[in-house]
UniProtKB/TrEMBL annotation:
The lineage of its organism: Eukaryota, Fungi, Dikarya, Ascomycota, Pezizomycotina. It comes from Zopfia rhizophila CBS 207.26. Pfam families: BBE (PF08031), FAD_binding_4 (PF01565). Keywords: Oxidoreductase, Signal. This is FAD/FMN-containing dehydrogenase. PROSITE patterns: FAD_PCMH. GO terms for molecular function: FAD binding; oxidoreductase activity.
Amino acid sequence: MRASTRKIALRLSRISAVASLCLALSTNKVDASATIARNTYLNNTACRFLPGDSGWPSSEEWQQLNTSVDGRLIGTVPVGAVCHDPTYDGAACELLKQTWSLPQAHFNDPSAFMAAYQQNASCDPYTSRPSPCLRGNYVSYAINVTSAADVAAGVTFAQEKNVRLVIKNTGHDYLGKSTGKGGLSLWTHHLKSIEFLNYSSEAYSGPAIKIGAGVQAFEAYEAAAAAGFKVVGGECVTVGVAGGFTQGGGHSMLSSVYGMGADQALEWEVVTANGTLVIATPTANEDLYWALSGGGGGTYGVVLSLTVKAYPDGVIGGASMWAIFGSIFSIGELTLPGATKDEVRTLLAPFTSYLAERNISYQLNVTSLPSFLEHIDRYVGPLPYGTIPSAQIQGGTMVSRTVVEKNNAEIMAVLRNISTSSQFYVAAYALNVSKQPSSPNALLPSWRDALIYYVIPQFWNYTIPFEEMAEQEDFLSERVMPPLQAWGSGAYMNEADFQDPGWKQNFYGENYARLKRVKRTWDPKDLFYATTAVGSEAWEVMGDGRLCRA
Ligand SMILES: Cc1cc2nc3c(=O)[nH]c(=O)nc-3n(C[C@H](O)[C@H](O)[C@H](O)COP(=O)(O)OP(=O)(O)OC[C@H]3O[C@@H](n4cnc5c(N)ncnc54)[C@H](O)[C@@H]3O)c2cc1C
Ligand SMILES: *[C@@H]1O[C@H](CO)[C@@H](O)[C@H](O)[C@H]1NC(C)=O
Ligand SMILES: *[C@@H]1O[C@H](CO)[C@@H](O)[C@H](O)[C@H]1NC(C)=O
Ligand SMILES: *[C@@H]1O[C@H](CO)[C@@H](O)[C@H](O)[C@H]1NC(C)=O
Ligand SMILES: *[C@@H]1O[C@H](CO)[C@@H](O)[C@H](O)[C@H]1NC(C)=O
Ligand SMILES: *[C@@H]1O[C@H](CO)[C@@H](O)[C@H](O)[C@H]1NC(C)=O
Ligand SMILES: *[C@@H]1O[C@H](CO)[C@@H](O)[C@H](O)[C@H]1NC(C)=O
Ligand SMILES: *[C@@H]1O[C@H](CO)[C@@H](O)[C@H](O)[C@H]1NC(C)=O
Ligand SMILES: *[C@@H]1O[C@H](CO)[C@@H](O)[C@H](O)[C@H]1NC(C)=O
Ligand SMILES: *[C@@H]1O[C@H](CO)[C@@H](O)[C@H](O)[C@H]1NC(C)=O
Ligand SMILES: *[C@@H]1O[C@H](CO)[C@@H](O)[C@H](O)[C@H]1NC(C)=O
Ligand SMILES: *[C@@H]1O[C@H](CO)[C@@H](O)[C@H](O)[C@H]1NC(C)=O
């Protein structure tokens, strides 16, 4: 095989190093907003109402909403309620505790979400049974969405009653974008339709898959395999394809061959802030199409379905590796469509020779499996859910090929420092998504020049005090990320540090101004809010979690 002439999807992940020092930086963050007297904004529609406010909708009004959505309004109860009095249930709590760090504890529930910092220990299996289950940052109500009419009823109600609106699909969002204190959530999880099409448009003619907004990657992968196709989706197989993944960019094991998630989008079915159902394609409502394809979830409208490109299934070469040098190096998975085992070994030969010459012992496993689904099951499975934890804090940055060529030593020094002086580890994805998509989209442009995408995570430890983990989050933002960001060219909005002060530039780059104009067109009253979403600077979260106009 002439590797240099093939499109290669090479992913190096979990280059991990065991950290030895425990550094906790104490910060004295004074939340000035907390001192604002609560009643100064009680009747002020500059802030969204919270339960208990005189302006909060009456139970009759909620019942009217419930009637208009055919009884699909849910008064939410945090999932962790089974671990606290008076709703304690020992067996259910124990079960929940075992999976709390994993997606499956959260994605089937209307109000649960995975961002550990934003969970704020308000109601979880690790706090004591007698401590109350507080609502904290959980939404108060959710509509179990089945149709455009349900969404229209929800957006109209939230707008008229000045209630914070949230869109939740699976709740994977690391930045807490799929929750909001006291909110009304549009819960898209049950929109599970899957349909295969022969799509034909100016930009693309070929096989496509139309998925409901609630379809998760494992469902899309399974359906595609059964029909003889493969599709671009996340490594975490429980992430929603049409939600945050494609809307935020979406990197996949197949991205070096087919592009990012956003590059697959052909057609969006969307309910806009005024309750209107529209179709957005490269030639119809093209500004909305452009923004939804990479410009961020929960910002421009409520997606009901997405049509994406599908590709013929076939053999996938793969590899994983462990090597001990310094501390530990590992390749979680390498993906090489079409390759035999020998071709995978040949591709890796320069690297394995390098290790051999230095007497570095390593274990390399190579595969060539008949379908993408089997490859997925082998490397990020077992299906259906996989085992990748969701409870973590992290920062990340893409580094361009030019910068790596010029400054590799400096970058390595920064990474070595992170892995030896902090409790964060270093994960890296090697990819090439430089190819322009068939239609322009709002993907962060620096993805196109990226050679490596670094993620700097730390798993959330629920057994230590919340404050210590919160300090780690500040330490990440203030000390760990800046030296690496100096070499980076932006961050992936879905896996970034939510405290990044440079979020506008880093998450959206030169697209920000245009995205803001699109938002103004489709959501002129700023109904949709999510932390670090385009337009979110118009809002401020106050000390009590209330959302107010800045
Ligand atoms: C364990 C784990 C592994 C991951 N692995 C990958 C990976 O390999 N590649 C990758 O690219 N990303 C990965 N991610 C990040 C993932 O893409 C994001 O968390 C993404 O936002 C999840 O989208 P969701 O719709 O499933 O989740 P949610 O948290 O429900 O939603 C995310 C955002 O999208 C918005 N949204 C959801 N549905 C809709 C809708 N129908 N209309 C409008 N807005 C909507 C929400 O409001 C929110 O802002 C991973 C995340 C986790 C937790
Ligand atoms: C808020 O409005 C309600 C009626 O809408 C009124 O009864 C109440 O006095 C107002 N409260 C404040 C603090 O202005
Ligand atoms: C909405 O109506 C359904 C059906 O009557 C009921 O089961 C549900 O509890 C109601 N929701 C709320 C929030 O009252
Ligand atoms: C967590 O809850 C405390 C009150 O218990 C509040 O002061 C703080 O602002 C909350 N933090 C977040 C991130 O929601
Ligand atoms: C949501 O609606 C689906 C049908 O669309 C139903 O199967 C499911 O049980 C409902 N979930 C809840 C929590 O109401
Ligand atoms: C698409 O076209 C091919 C070739 O004509 C045909 O075999 C296939 O059944 C079509 N698929 C769908 C979903 O219509
Ligand atoms: C390689 O395969 C063996 C046997 O299945 C397994 O025990 C080992 O963990 C694998 N190593 C890697 C790096 O995947
Ligand atoms: C590797 O090991 C061989 C045999 O033990 C030894 O001759 C050689 O010098 C070693 N090379 C390095 C780089 O350590
Ligand atoms: C090394 O990392 C620590 C955080 O772990 C940071 O405080 C320090 O400034 C870094 N040093 C350099 C030289 O980057
Ligand atoms: C990256 O991909 C593009 C095409 O998609 C290709 O032209 C280019 O050579 C690739 N770069 C490298 C370094 O492989
Ligand atoms: C959490 O922290 C405790 C106390 O430092 C430690 O014993 C435990 O191993 C940690 N758990 C994880 C999953 O890191
Ligand atoms: C809804 O918003 C769109 C885009 O802003 C606008 O074109 C349309 O006229 C609006 N429809 C109604 C009924 O207000």
